[in-house]
Amino acid sequence: MAVLITGIGELTTNDAELGKLRDAAVVIDGEAIAWVGAAAEAPDADERVDVEGRAVLPGWVDSHTHLVFAGDRTAEFEARMAGKAYSAGGIAVTVDATRSASDEQLAANLRRHVDEAARQGTTCLETKTGYGLNVEDEARSARIAADVADEVTFLGAHLVPPGADAESYVDLVCGDMLDAVAPLVRWADVFCETGAFDEAQSGRVLKAARERGLGLRVHGNQLGEGPGVRLAVELGAASVDHCTYLSEADVEALAASETVATLLPACDLSTRQALAPARRLLDAGATVALASNANPGSSYTTSMAFCVTTAVLQMRMTIDEAVWSATAGGARALRRDDVGFVRPGARADLHVLEAPSTTHLAYRPGVPLTAGVWRRGKRLTSGFASKW
What are the binding residues for Zn(2+)? Predict the structure, then answer.
């Protein structure tokens, strides 16, 4: 059934030819967008929905989350707010809880967070394993994620489990663990950071994953300058995520590559670190994505709007740059062109704001502005701001 959405005050398409349209309309046919243009030229459809002057943009594409988990790390957060430094080691707390949880508990928790994100306009979401850290629990995490998320990433190389030998654990990640998860995931990732995995170990994991046909992602340069960006660019990773601390060589390498710099501002704030240098990256010509890094330890939020607001108010991005990075930029980080855009042939993922323009996302910080969402052509329950 075709649905005509009309009365769009401002339409952000992210399409170079279509641009940003006013007094626009969109036709959805099944799960895809069939037509985009001026409302006065809109074709007939089976159903008509008037959004009454509201702004419409692509659904958020959240290209970095860790949502297959159990347990709570409130105590760690409180300690950090009281001045204790963030370290990678807190991941072990979530590992213990996740291993103890049932499949049903993990799946219910994942669905709860994905639904929470969708009510705020997130229509395409990646999530990772990485809280199992043994063959059985990494494999079941991948199975659970594959049933719910749009994209699944293997992150067995999240942390060396307590008591394990690092080199022996890397052997396991590159061997039996990779064998178990490879049929269930599209991507592989590694936490290339002090306290996690060094450059040589990270390179081993990424190369083994590439040999199995998986795309590559890297957690890098979160706690300080390091080899993460360089390794990601050298191996042709789709993205390197965090990028909080970058040398000039890192910025230049990203600008000259196809590797997306995925910035995670909610994590930077929660860990009380400097915000990633978005302006430097953009001015150099690098491709930037924004993502939530939703996880129980260092960034417990599913709000992409919060990330966009932070990027504009504190990272010197324009509203158009931030919205693009949270939609088309996330799609680029996932090597997809069917999401993050409003154009014929794209997936029918639309985010309707309780506002006349996307500017209000930063102009009215903290105000819930999701009025409605379409995902794969299906209209979801209206968001927090309106019963429209």
Answer: 64, 66, 219, 293
